[in-house]
Amino acid sequence: MSHLRALACLSAFLVLAPSPAPAADTSSDPIPVPNVPAAVTHHTALIGGREIRYTATAGTIVLTDAKDQPAASVFYVAYTADGLGSKSERPITFAYNGGPGGSSALIHMGAFGPRTVVTTNGAATPPAPYRIVDNENSLLGSSDLVFVDAVGTGFSRIVGHATGKDFYGVDEDGKAFTQFIRRYITTNGRWNSPKFLAGESYGTTRSCVLAKMLQDDGIVLTGVTLISSVLDFSTLEAQPGDDEPYWLFLPTEAAVAAYHHKVAEPADLPAYIASVRTYARGEYAHALSAGAALPAAERDEVARQLHAYTGLPVDYLVRSNLRVPPERFEKQLLGDESRTVGRYDGRFSNFDLDPIADSAETDPSSDAVFGAFTAAFNTYVRDELGYKSDAKYEFLSGAVNGAWNFKRSGGDDASAVNVSNDLQVAMTANPYLRVFSANGIYDLATPFFATEYSLAHLGLPPELQAHISFGYYPAGHMIYVNPVAHAALVHDLAAFYRSRS
Questions:
Q1: Considering only CA atoms, which of 192, 185, 81 is closest in space to residue 138?
Q2: CA–CA distance, 277 with 270 (Å, rounded to integer)
Q3: Omega cis (within 30) before 100
Q4: With a cut of 70, which residues of the chain have pLDDT below it?
Q5: Which of 343, 365, 387 finishes a domain?
Q6: Per the structure, how many domains does the chain have?
Q7: Cystine design at 490: which of 107, 119, 137, 247 (Cβ 3.0–4.6 Å)?
Q8: Which domain holds residue 464?
């Protein structure tokens, strides 16, 4: 598996019981807290057709251990709009990406921050110089924003006598973010502000854990935005005897095949996707559940229908026993052109240098844009925000990703992570909490049908189930790299925030 395929909650990354990190060596000198002063600057940006004045703060908050000793220095960038309401009227949103091991740079300079980097929609972005411009679709028009880098990512660092095992895990990470949010709202007088979370990719897993932990800590949320979600990791990778992921991926694969003209282009894409959903959960799921008992004639008929949806050859589908993992779909869809499609975003494609391999070495969609975001953020944070750190900004950390502890407290070593119960508990304890699920229809990392399935199986009563709403966009995992999808997403979120005010 390539480095990039192991990042940002990939379907192939299900490390459930990694080796434990070494215990802290309390005899050694503690790691010092970075001594970089906070940078406070004032700006104006054109957002949603209006000029908004705002204050930007780039700084750190120190987290402490059980003995109240420094354990981590967490970097954040906060934006507060000037003159748009009092602190008790103005919502505040804590936003982050996933990985695990991802900084917040993508959701910050791609989705919601007041400044963004210009990338090429659906194709590779040329090298530097990159253009950093006002983000017309910034969420700052609806909420103050705090972008947070998880420990070990961005400029966030372990300090004192702490080690990775104190932060690199599902529950450990949730506790760190809970402490950060408590300290931020205390220091900045935001206890009485409406509070929202916005997480992308593994950040949605974090948000579910965090919603419950904050609730338990007396911090009641108003809303949670889940972007390109994964709640139950078992929906992303099939295991022997578990065929669920195959049919959950089918609607996304059908959308990607239609985008690349490998099947007849539907006149009404949403209606077409709805019909694929019906087939996937019906005839396809039934055929897979039959296993070895499936008659050959029925197998062949299913293969023909899968061909009609995916464009993959019938004989290939039969030889695959009707079960094509997503990484093979990415390789096979444009295989006759010696190209592979993107995992994060199936609209992207690139040359396939090893056509006989089962999966691509890299992801064309991340290769196309990650360099632009890395360069832009490093320029922006130092030149425009004035945060003068010489440290490396860890855009994506493979070390954090590889050390992640996916075992929950009291959980089973053999079980895939499933945070559905955390969200269920949070929504039940706080019946005013609303959830908005944003989905890219070309996302082959966290397919929308799997998200729908997870959110439909929270076990909520109907009146609370109605508190979950959905948005669908013509993009992939990183919805905002398509300008049309980005505008639609923020339009929907503006309505979501208004409904909670």
A1: 81
A2: 10
A3: yes
A4: 1-27, 413-414
A5: 365
A6: 2
A7: 137
A8: 4-234+369-500
Residue 309: name the closest of 341, 353, 359, 274 by CA: 274
For residues 452-486, one letter each, b for 16 or more C-beta atoms within 10 angstroms of the residue's C-beta and e for the rest, the string is: bbbbeebebeeebeebbeebbbbbbbbbbbbeebb
* pLDDT of 411: 73
pLDDT digits (tens, 9 = 90+) for 419-462: 999 999 999 999 999 999 999 999 999 999 999 999 999 999 99
Which amino acid, one-letter code, is at 164? G
74 membership: H or E segment, kind and range: strand 70-81
- Beta-strand runs (E) in 190-330: 195-200, 223-227
Same domain, 350 and 383: no
Q: Helices (H) and strands (E) in the chain — how many of each?
A: 15, 14
Tell me the residue length of the chain. 501
Three-state DSSP state, 477: coil
Neighbouring-strand partners of residue 197 = 94, 224
Question: So what's the pLDDT on residue 14?
Answer: 31
* Both tokens assigned to 16: 């459930």
pLDDT score, position 414: 61
Checking DSSP bridges between strand 195-200 and strand 223-227, what pairing results, if any?
A: parallel
Contact 214, 179 (CB under 8 A): no
Task: Provide the angle, in degrees to the nearest 10, between the axes of the packed helices 244-259 and 296-310.
Answer: 40
- For the stretch 310-340, pLDDT in tens is 999 999 999 999 999 999 999 999 999 999 9
